Structures are given as C-alpha cells and as structure tokens.
Amino acid sequence: MISFLSGRYDSVQEIAPDQRLRPTRGFGRQWDEPTQPQLRGPHPEQGETGKHLPTARLTRLRVLALPAGIVLTVRALGLFIAWAMCAANNRPFNFQSWDGYFYFGLAVHGYGGFDPAVTYDKDGHYFPYAPMSFFPGYSLTVRLLGLLFGGHFLAAAVILSLTASVVAGYGVARLARHAGAGQRGQLAAVALTAGAPMSVVYSMPYPEAMLVALAAWTLVAVLERRWLLAGFGAAAAGLTSPMAGPLIPVVMAAGMVHLYRVRTHRIGAAVAVLVAPLGMLGYLLWARLVSGVPGGFFAITDRGWGNHVDFGVATARWIFESLTESRDTFAVLTATAIIAAVIATVRTPMPWPVWVYTAGTVALVVSHTGIIHDRVRLLLSAFPLLIVAAVRLARLRGRTTALVVGGVVLAGLWFSAYSLAVWPSSI
C-alpha cells in the first residue's frame, strides 16, 4: 500500500522507559528516536493498560494527517482572501468564473447544452463545437458525483476539486521523499504546491487539482515501478486535460526502458505502455468523429481560442512587451513566472522521468499561442519545480523554512485572489 511515511510505529517497538515522543524544531512535527529498550505492544510485559500503543497510533495518525491539514488550511485561507478581495472590488465571488463556467456546464449539460451566446470563436462568430476545447474527464466525474448528491453539481465540483487537491498533496509528499526530503521538506512541498500562484482553481470547477493528483501519483508509480497504476493514471490524466500530454510519453518511455533492461514485472510495464495514451487518444478521436471538423480538437481549439503551436514566438513577444511596456501587475508577474519556470527547469536536477515531464509541461505552456494570461494556471502542472524548491528550503533552520514557505504561500494566494477579483481577462 502506498503511504506518506514509512511504518515507524509497529505493534512491537523498543523505547526508553517512560520516554515521551518529543517534537523537534522544524516545519511540521518530527520525533526523536527512542534510545533504550523496552517492549511495548500487546504483550504481558506491557502491563494491563497498554497505554503506549494508543499513544503511538495517535502519533502516527497525526503525522499522516499533516498533509491533508496543510492543504485544507491553505485552501480555506485562499478562499477567504479571494472573497475579501472580491468584496473590496465590488465584484461577486463566483465559483464558475471563466473556464470554470465551461467545465461546470459540461457536467450539467454536456457538450451540446450550452447557450449559443457563449459558443463563439475568437472572431465572435457562432461556433457550436467551441466547448470541445475542454477535455471531459473532470466534468464526467462531477456529473457522476452530482447525480449521487441529488443534482447538486456545484457542490460536487467543489468537493471533487478539494478532495483531489488533498490527494495531490500526498502525491507531492511522496515525490518529495523520493527527492531525498525528510518530513519537513515533504510538508514544505505540500504547502508550496497548495499555495502556488493560481491555486485558487483547486477550489473551483477546474480540472487542475485532479490533473496534479493524477500526475503526481503516476510519477510516483513510475519511480516505484508500479506499472499498472502508472498506465491507468496516465490514461485518466489524458482524459482530463491536454496538459497531461507530457505525462503520457514519460510513462510509455519508462515502461519501454523497463522492458528492455529488466526481466521482472514485464507484463505490467507492457500494459502501461499500451494503456497510457488511451485516454487522450480516445477523446481526440471522439472529438474528430462527432464534430466532423477537419483537424478535430486541434482545429477546434485554434478557431475557438487561437491556440496552436508556434514554438514560443507569441509567448516571447508577449513577455517582452509585458516587461518593457505594460503597467499591469498581473502581466508582469505572469511573464516573470514563465521565465522563472523555464530557467528552473533547465537548471534543476531530477530523476529523468520527472525532469522530462516537467520540461515537457513548461515547453507546452510556452510553445503555443492563444490566451497568454492563463499560463500561470497551466504552470501548476509543473509542480515538481516546487518540490525541488521545498527540498532546498528544508535545509535551512526550522523557523526560517517556515517563514519563507509561509511568505511564498501568502504571495501565491494573493496572486490567485488578484487574478479572480481584479484582473479582467481569462484565468
């Protein structure tokens, strides 16, 4: 079973007499190791009360609950800041802002149920296939949950996003452990990911929380050679968002390398190679057949939103203009974030599957045209960069780590609230 921490508290352990677990300095709670032997557990030597066993179990539960607690705390704080900034700007707080309207609409009405007034192309002409630019995985899940919740689809969407963000937090922690992080580094990675710029969409009808959760655990599965989980995780991610594009070849390449080099678990690796692309390929094929538009999804997203690959020319031009001519804070910070992501990807050492996924994600964000202002949201998929930053921050003193991580999280939540309450363009 995949767990956040290795099993430190077994039913029989040795501890010093009457020794209590003591917290040490650091971000999150860490525990001193016992020193002198004494059996504890369901044994006669323990005595009738067995008081040490419940204490150990409670300690372990507290440790296991820390990532969830961090994620939910950050989400609650982020929603409060966004609500307060909306109120300060006399703007209603709306869970269905921008693309959230389409993802939520897909869950309620499907691709053919949108008002014609909102199904237009980039030139303002009626285009009924415009909603096909949005992948269906998240909306289908909301639909199923909404039916279980008696038709309360918005509640189902918010609950799904929050739950997925918690699952993503545990996946991020597991990846951080693979990167050599201790408990402090793992919790710092969870906090940075939960409070990243544009992370407000983790509490809205957007697929990013679900995508990050699937990507994180798929990468964990690749590193741990859990091939079935890797293959089906990549397939589900491919049905959720086009930003899963870099994840699919990573799983396929890792599986083929395993088949070439290792003689065990070959069936699982072969299944992963075959299954990983099915989600994305299935939707692309469906969109082409149903719409009848030559070029399918790619032609639809180009006509509807102006998205096509230009190898970064439009992004580079926009960054130059933003940093030299723009007076908009959002544009300047977005340009800075894109540049920082590119530099960090080039300079950051990672296991090759994680690096290829991260580099592919950043390249995908940079290399296409269309709306530039949503690039920070798309960069949420490049979360391994935050894991590396957390590992390095964890080397500082405990209070320093906590202050830096807390400051970065607050800045990210402010950016999220600003984009929702002040910035007038799409996020």
From TrEMBL:
Tell me how this protein sits in the membrane.
Multi-pass membrane protein
Keyword NADP set for record: no
Region of interest (Disordered), residue spans: 23-52
PANTHER family reported in the protein's UniProt record? GPI MANNOSYLTRANSFERASE 2
Q: In which pathway does it act?
A: Glycolipid biosynthesis; glycosylphosphatidylinositol-anchor biosynthesis
Which superkingdom?
A: Bacteria
Q: Which residues cross the membrane?
A: 63-85, 144-173, 227-255, 267-286, 330-347, 354-372, 378-394, 401-423
Q: What is this protein called?
A: Mannosyltransferase (PIG-V)
Among InterPro entries, the record links this protein to: PIG-V/Gpi18
Q: Where in the cell is it found?
A: Endoplasmic reticulum membrane
Q: Which keywords does this Swiss-Prot/TrEMBL entry list?
A: Endoplasmic reticulum, Glycosyltransferase, GPI-anchor biosynthesis, Membrane, Transferase, Transmembrane, Transmembrane helix
| Compositional bias segments (type: Basic and acidic residues) | 42-51
Where it mainly occurs, coarsely classed, is endoplasmic reticulum
Q: Does the keyword Metal-binding apply?
A: no
